[in-house]
Specification:
single chain; 4-stranded antiparallel β-sheet; alpha+beta; globular
């Protein structure tokens, strides 16, 4: 459960999400997470179930979980 810092002021976190199977799924998850305060980019990959989030500060995992739930999927873990 480590965060990587790519550029000054940004934090990258990778989450495992179950249930994504297509581009529409990726878009739904990305759209919900991108609405969280401080998020600058989201990349969801259905084939691996990984969602990479770049934000200005570490995100509250429960907020990310709620966003993933809202999209209709399940947050499995932060990796």
């Amino acid at each position: 459960m480590s965060a990587q810092t790519d550029t000054p002021g940004s934090v990258t976190a990778v989450y495992k999400v179950s249930g994504m199977s297509c581009g529409h799924c990726e878009g739904a998850v990305s759209g919900e997470i991108s609405e969280l305060p401080g998020v600058s980019s989201v990349k969801a990959v259905a084939s691996t179930g990984e969602v990479t989030v770049v934000s200005v500060a570490p995100l509250d995992e429960e907020a990310v979980r709620a966003a993933v739930d809202e999209a209709g999927f399940e947050l499995v873990a932060k990796i």
